[in-house]
Structures are given as C-alpha cells and as structure tokens.
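U., I forgot to send this yesterday:
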Amino acid sequence: SFLQMPLREGRLYQIDTRLRPSGNQGALVIGSEAFVRYHAGELGGAAAGVQSHLWERQALLRARHVAGDPALFAELEEKAILPAAYGRREDREALAAEIRRMRERMEAELGREASRGKNPKTGHGGLVDVEFAAQFLQLAHGHEHPSIRTGTTPVALRRLRQAGLLREADFEALAG
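Result:
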C-alpha cells in the first residue's frame, strides 16, 4: 500500500508503506527506543537477534540530521545507526552477492518502468549503480575505516579514494 501526500497542485510524493520494519502490520512510525531495539535485533530485524536487512542498512548509511533535535539524532546515530551499519566485519563476498542480487532485481523491476528500460537513475549503468558501489565499499570497510562513514555518495567516493579503498581510475569512473 502507498501513503500519498496530495496537494491542490497534485501528488507531492508517494511512500511505499510496506518498506518499514514490520511491513504492512505495524505503525507508520516508531519511537526512538523502539528504533534502537529494532536495529539491535530485539524487535525482529531480519530475524530476532539478527541485525537489520541489507536494504535497511544501506538506508542507514544515508541517515543524517535534517530537522528537530540534533542531540536526539546524535544519540540515535550512536546507539542504533552506526552499530547497525558498521558494527561488524562483513563477509565481503556474501555482501557483494547480496547487493548484486538486489541491484539486478531493481534493474529488472524498476528499469523497465520509464523510457523502455533506459532510466538514468535505476536502469543499467544508472546513478543507483554508483550509489550501490559506494554503499558496498562503506559496508565492507566502514567497520575498520571510520573516515569513510558519510551520508553523501560524492563525499563517500572521495573518502574511499583517500583511504586507499578505491582506485583512482574507479573513482574517476564513478564520480564523473
């Protein structure tokens, strides 16, 4: 199901309400304590006692304070966001395979929707490929390299290059 923000001028945005911790079954929003417990695996996560789903962890990589109490965001970042995103060493091969499967599914499902498969964001070689490459490297190396932890893809690419985790030629291809 979708939650829409209708305006007199038309729809502002559409939110897929299935993309929340408890899918269609839970509340649209949860409190900060429940957020921390969920990402710690206490409320289900991928499975009770297991960390968040990969797509949730990818979203957490981009979390940043935009409104409200900055101290509350800093607390949530320390207690839930950073541990869920970077709290353990990754099996890089398994992580790469899972991201590749997710990306292929996105490309197949969403890439066809616009321009007959030539979507500059979600189609083959689109912007999502750049984001997923940066996110893979952040998840794979962020545990050992705090300097690459940022919510912005261009900044992440620069920091990955500076940390020696992204070759110059690959940086040029992705950042260009």
